[in-house]
Design a protein that fits this description.
Oligomer: single chain
Strand order of the largest sheet: 3-4-6-5
Low-confidence stretches: none
Largest sheet: 4 strands, mixed
Helix content: 25-40%
Mean pLDDT: 90
């Protein structure tokens, strides 16, 4: 995402894992710092935008991480968050990715407002994939557990599948620009740090 976002301004990344931070630096992303989301190495009121895309579900103290993001956001700045949705969708992929939780919309909204944010927009996303993923995850519970955890995904995904998924997500983008989705595999929220001067 840093490569995408740097078109719009100066970007900084935070990565907990030493190896992943090194990988970023090897790719020329030298503004990536190894740190914890609950202890960001930045001054108060530094950023106009913070993204936490599939991040806070990995953190034990997600509320603390949201408060810490609030600290380094400028007044009037925005936080963009995506998280996995619905506990009943928990599957092997959550275990492999070391998720601590999946959310429902009300839960994420509560955490954001408790941290002091004004929620600008909150919607489920990946609605088109919700029925097949829900069916797959629920059916898999009927099968014996495998001896070892293996990903549900092939990396990299085959080209035609990637193209199909890109088309599905692109089509959904049009829908969510007009209305909030009532369900989906993930949740996307845009929140704002209040600006007392306004």
């Amino acid at each position: 995402m840093l490569l995408q976002l740097r078109r719009y301004g100066c970007t900084f990344g935070v990565e907990l894992d030493h190896e992943a931070a090194g990988y970023c630096k090897d790719r020329g992303l030298d503004t990536v710092t190894q740190a914890m989301a609950g202890h960001l190495p930045f001054a108060d009121d530094t950023f106009g935008l913070i993204t936490a895309l599939d991040v806070i579900e990995h953190i034990d103290d997600d509320r603390g991480a949201l408060r810490e993001a609030m600290r380094v956001l400028r007044p009037g700045g925005h936080l963009l968050v995506s998280v996995p949705a619905f506990r009943f969708l928990w599957g092997r992929q959550d275990d492999i990715n070391l998720h601590k939780r999946r959310y429902v919309a009300g839960e994420l909204r509560e955490r954001l407002t408790a941290a002091g944010y004004d929620v600008v927009r909150l919607t489920y996303i990946n609605a088109a994939l919700f029925p097949p993923i829900a069916a797959f995850r629920l059916m898999r519970r009927l099968l014996p557990k495998p001896e070892s955890l293996r990903s549900d995904f092939t990396v990299p995904a085959p080209g035609p599948l990637n193209s199909l998924l890109a088309w599905v997500f692109g089509a959904e983008r049009i829908a969510i620009s007009r209305f909030d989705m009532p369900f989906g595999v993930s949740i996307l929220a845009l929140a704002r740090k209040p600006d007392a001067s306004r």
